[in-house]
Amino acid sequence: xxxxxxxxxxxxxxxxxxxxxxxxxxxxxxxxxxxxxxxxxxxxxxxxxxxxxxxxxxxxxxxxxxxxxxxxxxxxxxxxxxxxxxxxxxxxxxxxxxxxxxxxxxxxxxxxxxxxxxxxxxxxxxxxxxxxxxxxxxxxxxxxxxxxxxxxxxxxxxxxxxxxxxxxxxxxxxxxxxxxxxxxxxxxxxxxxxxxxxxxxxxxxxxxxxxxxxxxxxxxxxxxxxxxxxxxxxxxxxxxxxxxxxxxxxxxxxxxxxxxxxxxxxxxxxxxxxxxxxxxxxxxxxxxxxxxxx
Length: 294
What we know:
Oligomer: single chain
Distance between the termini: 32 Å
């Protein structure tokens, strides 16, 4: 854990008056509460959805495979070969939005490099909790290990990745010590939320239904991967400072756990643009993942 003084400096500095405290709360909230209605963001996400719709037409695609009883317990597999690496992607959306259906597009480029692509859904707030989402993604990975061969992938070569809230969930899959944790090959988490305690000081604390004990229990910074697991962490260079803080905090935890850990920033990319780099071979994120799993 980072020294308390470091966290105080960023999130809980003693404030002299209520108006200053309110302004500070608003400042931290803005760092996490990104505007998905901005025209540039809408256009960016629209491109991902359109490209995913095309990729979903692949004749080899295995879509909406159920890994559990809930309607959100579904995953898609774009298999390449039974002995090739598998990238398992978890979407973001602040644990309350998002869908695998708009994150199928990277399968096109990864398949040409003999890497299978898997993307999955999980239950969302407010109908579920963050803990439920963690259980879901872990169960999805268990399902892949048990059933992956039947769907054309190698369950012994799972590389876990995700962005934003999906980065948090990917890190909780990589965490050491949970029941029946399968072996995974690597973790890549982009723009992730790894230390949940600062969220207690934002306006999201209520709809997140997050208490201090829950924040500690569900923070990847307190649940690092086992020693030796390769970890790649990244953010866009145009992201807010809170995401840089999150990456650095979790990077420290991974390094202290004995994981070979790489941190990087993709120049000029924001929180939404960097998602597109999963499907761009010329992009920093794509090339780094390719090197990690090769």
